[in-house]
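Hi support team,

I'm opening this ticket because the web form for multi-chain structure prediction keeps timing out on my end. I have pasted the exact lines I submitted so you can reproduce it. The total is 1024 residues across two entries, so I didn't expect it to be a heavy job. Is there a limit I'm missing, or should I split the entries? Thanks in advance, R.K.
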Amino acid sequence: MRRFVIGQAKNLIDQTRRPRPHHNNIRLLSLLASDPIPVSSSRLFSDMPGSDSSSSLPVTIDSINPNVLKCEYAVRGEIVNIAQKLQDDLKINKDAYPFDEIIYCNIGNPQSLSQQPITFFREVLALCSHTALLDRDETHALFSADSIARAWKILDQIPGKATGAYSHSQGIKGLRDAIAAGIEARDGFPADPNDIFMTDGASPGVHMMMQLLISSEKDGILCPIPQYPLYSASIALHGGSLVPYYLDEASGWGLEISELKKQLEDAKSKGITVRALAVINPGNPTGQVLSEENQRDIVDFCKKEGLVLLADEVYQENVYVPDKKFHSFKKVARSMGYGEKDISLVSFQSISKGYYGECGKRGGYMEVTGFTSDVREQIYKVASVNLCSNISGQILASLVMSPPKPGDESYESYIAEKEGILSSMARRAKTLEEALNKLEGITCNRAEGAMYLFPCINLPQKAIAAAEAAKTAPDTFYCKRLLNATGIVLVPGSGFRQVPGTWHFRCTILPQEDKIPAIVNRLTEFHKSFMDEFRD
Amino acid sequence: MALEYDSLNENVKKCQYAVRGELYLRASELQKEGKKIIFTNVGNPHALGQKPLTFPRQVVALCQAPFLLDNPNVGMLFPADAIARAKHYLSLTSGGLGAYSDSRGLPGVRKEVAEFIERRDGYPRPCASYLSYHSDPELIFLTDGASKGVMQILNCVIRGAGDGILVPVPQYPLYSATISLLGGSLVPYYLDESENWGLDVNNLKQSVAQARSQGISVRAMVIINPGNPTGQCLSEANLREILRFCYNEKLVLLGDEVYQQNIYQDERPFISSKKVLMDMGSPFSKEVQLVSFHTVSKGYWGECGQRGGYFEMTNFPPRVVEEIYKVASIALSPNVSAQIFMGLMVNPPKPGDISYDQFTRESKGILESLRRRAKIMTDGFNSCKNVVCNFTEGAMYSFPQIRLPPGALQAAKQAGKVPDVFYCLKLLEATGISTVPGSGFGQKEGVFHLRTTILPAEEEMPEIMDSFKKFNDAFMTQYDNNFGYSRM
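Hello R.K., no limit was hit. The queue was backed up. Here is the completed structure from your submission:
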């Protein structure tokens, strides 16, 4: 009987993956729309005997690591799952929907929305991928001379020119030299290649630091609210405590030292040892660029309280307003006269953002300063278990930190591409911000940097009640309705946390410029009809 | 100082990973001083002169720079099938190599992996019996190297120190390091050196019983097949025994099969754990939970630096798969270039393709050379004084037993070093050969080994083995005092 039932369950699961007739999909969607917990089709069968029982299988939902169950990551969570099913269904049921495509505004993934990679970078990568090209005369007709020269330079820094070999666990030395030089050029203060740990994207670096810092739930990490949910998820996975500090929406998401102090004291009184302060600058989802003065106060705070400063600076090239400028925390600390002995600082950078947007390559690094050698050995040891990060990503990271210079053959086209992308982002940020501010009950701070808008939505009581009845958070309720009406995928503010009782959503500025007017129209129309339905 | 050594997570401090530990660091120091070092500490073929296969590099180069595909002269540099394949893989992405893919990996590539698994295990589509052997792309997750996949699965299984994972001794220290980092318990089961590193189910039973008597809940069992560092290939009978054991004891089986292409004898070809499990039929095939791991780093591909791997889950409840998916999504996506390498590996050029002959020639050349080198190395070690070496049936390593005389044990103690570390450091300093001491992998008390790879170039092998023999025999003579030797 049990085998038969498992077979039935398997059949049903398999069926939901195949294209299904229209009416079944509507039923499936309405079921999904009302279910507040992260969902997939299989959830419908969880009550069937044998399909998910804790009976005799060693690994079931009841017996897996509870930290895994606790952690959440809304950027690719419930709403995205629904969107993917809609997208699949759109292929066969075009007329069933009031939109003809799903537009993913949930994730900072520029090249998935037609942003082009920087030509010079990809030329170098292609040559390093297939080094035999460098021996062919025809190559000169297809590649710029400086990309060929750069590929040679990089290959000379790789033992045996073997781009398929595991490298040093911190990354190829020559590439770290280039990155250190880039950091020095950016900040005006020296950087040591031995302080650099290259990782598959910035995220693994964050995980490594959390692993080092957290021994139990008594270890706390101060995180901004709203925050990019990598931090909350990583802290949960490592069994630590997230100590929130609230950014001030009214003052453009400002970071108040008094708030940091308050939260620190609060945590201490609960028996939590706060070990680090995470700052995202430019902010995600909030987009604010910290003032230098603010940064100095933060550095002093960390020094005084003995906290490691975790500086997430992955959006350092994304600043859209003339009155703000990116300053690295390293530069700020050094210009205050603070050196290795004064402040423990980990600075994260990535190739996924900026104007290069190379998310799928998985490249990044952390610069680790102000740690004793025995601690650094431990960081090295953890990095070595994974052997090394992917070489192609390492090469890209070095290119990002040492791009073409004036006089280089590719400089003109490189600058044109870079400025084209950044100025377009600035325009899109402004257009969307203005459009959102026109909507009833919505206020939106400007995006000073990063890639997102994070408007505050003042939901009417009726909407909140409807959300409660549907057992969904109000901002999730709004975003689901929006998705079903417009095909636009956003992330509800609850995915980033927010001041309790306030509601937000995060929307990227990344759809191509020519799509923005249509997006604005659809959003505006939907919002009007939503408010008509739920206005108090 | 904000972060003191004392306040670091204990699990981090406890974890060890000898492959890039003391010997490697010392070798790197000596290299900086100008000494010629032969790095045989890690399975890193391209670092020792193995050339990458041409076809995949052509395809990925085109994917890196898709504007090449628009150039009318591209055919002068790339064969037509590489061009077609690049277009195919780019069409599977949603924005080329630079866009995050699905967190589980590109669906199109996972489908190719599923089809590969079915073909490999003798059930190519169209398959007569859909339910009896099936590989579901939804249960295949691509990862940044197989190691990341192992970490993800163990992170799911280990809840705390009370959870034990059965791990072979000797083992590849990714397992011990990860279990340490996750705060779990390693439950060792000893492979039998005198039986060519065979696996005796009685050893397994003993290990489990002992762990349980200490209050440990044994949750999973790791097998590495072909073995690392030991190289043994499990027979079908052995795999059946293991699967039956996992069924009886309610253990998840973690099948590390990254060396499945590296087989150097014909008596025991590679058979996947999944195939054996499915062939066993009910109740085993429906109830034993299995995770199988593979990679682009080994085999004849050796593309370690790409960081490409996958795992396939069998008999995992949907809600658990969802949770694993959720954790994967925090890392956003595995790197897309490596996913394309994976697609190419499971779907290589076929007879009739323009690149087929070259691809076959290159692959065969590598595999046949590896087979020869496995033999040269085994024979070479066996010709040395006090060294006994099992044949490398598979994988990429040789794991000779070094019977250290009491004099050497004493000298090691005086130097404050574990005996095999002492030996390996002396070997390094005398010959430049950088190995990993057996203690890094685990071994029986008082029995010492070292691990080396079979990867140095074939033409350099005789000289390397001579160099080793010269050092070893001199070392043995130096410390020989006829009082009896370390041996199992």
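A quick check on our side: The longest strand of chain A covers residues 273-280. Let us know if the file doesn't open in your viewer.
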